[in-house]
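To make this tangible, we now present a fold written out as tokens:
***
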Amino acid sequence: MANCHVAYQWSFPAFLYSQMQVDNTTSDEMLLSESGQGILDKESVTDLELKEKEQIGYAFAQRYRDTGDLNDLDAAVRIHQDIVELTPADHLNRPGRLHNLAISLKDRYERLGGLRDLEAALQRNQEAVDLMPIDHPDRACWLVSLAISFRDRYRRLGDMNDLEAALQKGEEAVDLMPADHPDRADQLHDLAISFTDRYQMLGDIEDLDTALRKGQEALDLIPAGHLNRARYLHGLAIAFTHQYRQSKDMKDLEAALQKDQEALGITPEDHTDRAYWLQGLGMSLINRYHRLGDRKDLEAALQRNQEAVNLTPVDHPERASRLQALAASLRNQYQRLGDMKDLEAALQSNQEAVNLTPVDHPGRAGRLENLAKSFHDRYQRLGDMKDLEAALQKYEEAIALTPADHPKRASRLYNLAVSLSGRYQKLGDMKDLEAALQKNQEALDLTPADNPGRPSQLTIHAILLSDQYQRLGDVKDLEAALQKAQEAMDLTPEDHPDRAIQLQTLAVSFWNRYQEVGDVKDLEAALQRYREAVDLTLADNPDRADRLYSLAVSFLHRYERLGDAMDLEAALQRYQEAVDLTLADNPDRADRLYSLAVSFSHRYERLGDIMDLEAALQRYQEAVDLTLADNPDRADRLYSLAVSFLHRYERLGDIMDLEAALQRHKEALDLIPDHPERADQLHGLAVSFLHRYWRLGDIMDLEAALQRGQEAVDLTPVDHPDRASRLQGLGSSFANRYQRLGNIKDLDSAVQKYQEAVDLTPTDDPHREGRLQGLAMSFENRYQRLGDLKDLEGAVDLTPSDHPDRARQLHNLAVSFRDQYRTLGDMKDLEAALQRDQEALDLTQADDPDRVNWLQSLAISFTDQYQRLGHTKDLEAALQRDQEVMELTPADHPERANRLENLGISLSDRYKRLGGIKDLEAAVQRHQEAVNLTPLDHPDRPGRLQSLAVSLRDRYRRLGDMEDLEAALQGDQEALDQTPADHPDRSSQLQNLAICFTRRYRRLGDMTDLETALQRYQDAVNLSPPDHPDRSNQLQNLALCFTDRYQRLGDMKDLEASVQNFQEALNLTPEEHPDRSHRLGGLAVSLRDRYQRLGDVRDLEVALQRGQEDVDLTPEDHPNRSRVLQSLALSLEDYYRKFQNTENLERVHSCYDESFKTQAHPNPETSWQAAVMWASFSEEFQPTYCSTAFSAAFNLLPELLWIGHSIPMRQDTIRRLDLGNITSTATRACIRVSDLISAVQLFEQGLATIFQQIMQLKPDLDKLPPEQADKLQKLSSELYSGMANNPSNVAQERQELLQAIRRQPDFEHFLLPQPYRVLHHASQGGPVVLLNSDENDCDGIIILNPVSNPVHVPLPNVTLELLQYQQSTLKELLNLCGVRTRGESPATRVFGYREGFNFRTKSIEEHFVELLTWLWKNVVEPVYQVLASHNIHKGRLWWLPSSSFTGLPLHACPPTDQFIHSYTASLSSLLEARGKKPSNTQYKIGVVGVTHTGHRGKNYLEGVKEEANNICSIIKDPNLAIKCLIGEEATPAAVKNQLQNCSWVHLACHGVQDLKDPTKSHLLLYDGELDLETILRMPLSNAEFVFLAACQTAMGDVHLLNESFHLGGGFIAAGFRGAIGTLWSMSDQDGPLVAQTVYSHLFQHGRQPQASDAAEALQVAVNRLKAQNAPYERWIPFIHMGV
């Protein structure tokens, strides 16, 4: 393009060019016409015609240069080709015409890249030179053209021979050219270019020096403003660039940049060569950017390269080169800013450059290489394997196009090796690693020892060998890697600018060997090399920051190895220096900030200083902020930032940090949808989700953790080094979901993942222990679910004993031994568990956070040992540890709920052993707290609900409160509802729910409950595998339920099912298993039932055998021993009935007797039933034992009627126990054997039990030691007043105090049921008549006086049916009489015959006479006769009726005046009233007259005001204070105050008996009411006598006849010594009369009244009514109670 092109322009005809410009639109026609004329005859053509034709060729060539129209160029080539063919070989102008053709062919080659054009141009140039005489003046010019063609072919094909030929021709041309020749500059320039090419090929610095010298000479020959000067400047700039790369001298780089800028400055904007200079300037700017890192240079380079491309036509041959340069600039900007648009644009430009490059073009290989680099960049950014595969394909194509001896082949092989290494890192395929090593070895083999590129190849080879070592473990590879790194170092001179780089590379190799071998010498060597590299690097060297960074890495690792804090400080210092040297917009700043943050994190872990964690977070955040959204490193930095947020969350507990961690993890993951590091990011995100799940318990977080963990594993190749850790994380997530939902598939998956992780982990890997531990825990969980011993054995085998974290491992080993014990029952395993638990605790400091866990585990082991051996010391030890655990657990601790649950279990165990109600209450409380602390959707909530339900069920069994049973059932149901169908705990929850339904069935008798229980039991069994450790217990419960249904329905199928299930349960229970006794006992019961049904004595014999085995296996102090003995006794009963063996009879009594001598009765109601059965058996076969048996039953009443319960609950228990009928039966049985003393004692224990308990809350404390007296007074007062926060606990504490008191001399019977020698003192004022009604006999017993034995009064004509008939008769009579509530009807109401009554034969009066006559003849008269036989004919007489005698008007039988009649609810109440000391204060009399109960005269009572006034007028003694509350004054508060302050109280008001809840019976007062329960809890210390001038005040509950639950009895129990009340409604007119008469009699002669005179006063008043001919229904209801 140099000389000949200039000549071309000089010889071009101006006229033709002018014509072409003028007629531009007709150029195609001209070309066609001219070319048509070009077909000339070689024989006839003239030289003139050829010259004209030649001129046309020139014209086309010139126009092509001006317009770029390829048609013009093709025309020029064709014309010049024709001319050459028409020119004879010996023609003088043939060389010139060959030269012209060569120039046009070269132009077309440069445009289209066709190799044939290049070969043809070279051939024509060679022919021209060969035809040219040596001394021809144009020979130099044509030699230059020939040299350029050789150089072009060299650049196309890479053949060094062509380059040598180019240099030879060029030097020959220069030698032929005079020093002052105008073309000499061109020839020197072209020669310089060739020398530059050879330098690039061979690296000989002399060639570069020559190129610079020739280029400068050429430039010096061209004037400053000459147009060709730009080409020379550009060529010189290229040479300076190469020299800069060799010397790293900024002067060379600045010189290159100056030359390129000058070239561009002198080139017009529309010049065709401007694109060349723009491209050159872009290259120089890129070089300076690489050196200085100034973004302005990068931006300017990108701008120049873009302009160059824009100026280049689409089909221009240089467009590919310029696109390539543009792509290089874009790639640099992407690497700086991380903008994906730049990466995509670079890849697109490289792809377009390749597409524009012919297959055989010499530049194609280089462009394919650049395209491969772009694909590789995108792979590194996005992780898409398609990009990596494309990169590999392009590298391979580039290499295929590169000859074996091509200078670029080695570098391309090197790049291919790098990409193969990347694919190996992603997929782990050894073939890739082997291929990478092979390709790099080829590169090394092609690279001379002194080649500057060899150290880089040696370095990558060292890296590949290290990878192979890590994969295969061959130490030879590691050593070879280090050797290669050392060789690279050795090849680099000490003063070489790259020496610091090579030192750094060698340091990396030493570091790698250190990591693999662990020899600290290698770490020291690495540190030394890094130090040397830093020392060789000037302060302003841009690489200094990077080398400081590497040095910091080494210091950090030595710190991790040796723990020297100075290394950590050195690392931090170097990192900080590196950051300080890094400009704010430097692309490496983010990375260095990131590493500095890592060091701060390490120091935080070392020292725990929160400031370091904050610094780490700050640096991580800065690094993230500097990283563009699509930067490939942003994901990693977000990940680390997330981890730091997680650490701060773990330190401070701020949920915001946890949320921030999750957010950063999510952002990181979103940035790399298909990136090779996506697996890492997924794993990190999974960990954060797991933390939030642990914090909040949200199942969605657990699902997210599992999903991300699974994705991470799926993306990790089987032989990837991180696969084990990701499998471990996934296994943990599966284990957590199993624990939450109970799906066995999750547990199996956890085992599988942990097993895979362990299998992939070398035995000496430090992470192996954690993976083994996870696997062991999963085995344990599966064992607990399925009961397969192999899982348990696997867990034990996986637990190492020499791990540095010995305490934790000892704990895990203890858990495994404990589980194995629970399966096999081998005490050695339990002892081993206890030993390991204790060792773990002993190894743990008091302030160690794990200590609480070891304490908890030790408590569990002690609990298991207690349950096996029954030693209370183990129970106390377990409870002590559990309490320590709670003391160490803050109120807001996440484990508090779990620890509360464990403490509750220990308290329950102690309750079951010792029977302390406080333990049971505390257990319920702890379990309730645990439930309250557990979120509704928490995985542990069902288990805690279940534990609470068990404690509530225990309390129900103890105290009988239905609310506890309903709450237990609700808790069990809720637990079941929250448990998936396949959860491991579902079977136990079904079983517990079934137990609750069974209990409710036994309480209420609803068959629906029994059927539901049976279904739940069956479901539980169906869910348990045949070898599950809990199956035997489930079968036992199922058998019990079949027994219940059999006993209800009598279906033999149920009985057979019961026997079968008990037998199967027993078969599954090892002989030494602690639960074997339960199964033996249950089987014995079912066999006994079958014997009773079928009569097969073999069943009875086996039942006896099993029952005896049950007894033998139960320790004497075991709480269940009483139940076991009672069960055996039942079998012995049947055996005695069958064989009448005296020995068996004695064994029956012996078993029962021993059972009731035990301290503990876990279920007192069951023991009550057993005692009643014993009594029944005794009455049938050996009646002398009846009193003993019934006494055993009645001694249980304090437990059954627990004083800590509400009165309604105790009343319900009385009904359920059928206490009234049992009392009657017990009394009758004792009478039958003439044991009247026992009869009286049992009769007393069964009567007015609740009132007796109330009276015990006001005991005489004078004889007690002061401290005990004060404490008992306090506890009793709390219960009496109803103000106790926890009545059951107060009652238990009171019971314990009473037991302590009774252990003292003379207090053995303190507040216990009184013996007869005390009870007979109730007859101090007169005989007391006890009336007992039983379905077989009715009897009376008279206590004549305090010194006599009781006397039996047979009542042969009285039966239970007759008594009930008389009760019904009385009720009908009262209905006919219109008995009503006071105030319902006028006081003057006349009683007559009622509809439905048989008035035709008898009047109401006659019916009353008949009733009273029957009572006289059959009840009262026999009593009077016995009294008369003991010379008792008159005086006071107390009636103590029971059962159906209650409510009958015994006092009204004529002769009514023989005795003064009173009633009493019990002997104890009469004793209490007699023994009460009179108040020391002045008597006060309170009168209450409720004329109406509300506004506008609501419930108006006629006569009340008159009645009150009459009383006040009678009491005239000035020493007696009287207080009247009339009308609106009689409010509940005022009346309560009067009751507490007055000794004598008269209440004229409405009285209402509540038959559903007697405690709610009440007095209607003004604007309110006063109920019986309130009265019972009032402290009435001054009380003497009360007159209840109200209706129904002595009417009791028909279902609680023996309890005397009426208002009158209540006032006596509350403290009044005596009371007047009514059996039914009184007439309004009778109230004033009776009251006036009673008080007139009491206060006659002005004396102070005595409570003991009230009965006589009432008799006087009733006689007055009778004297006025009042009908029976008006005078009979008035009765006296008390003294």
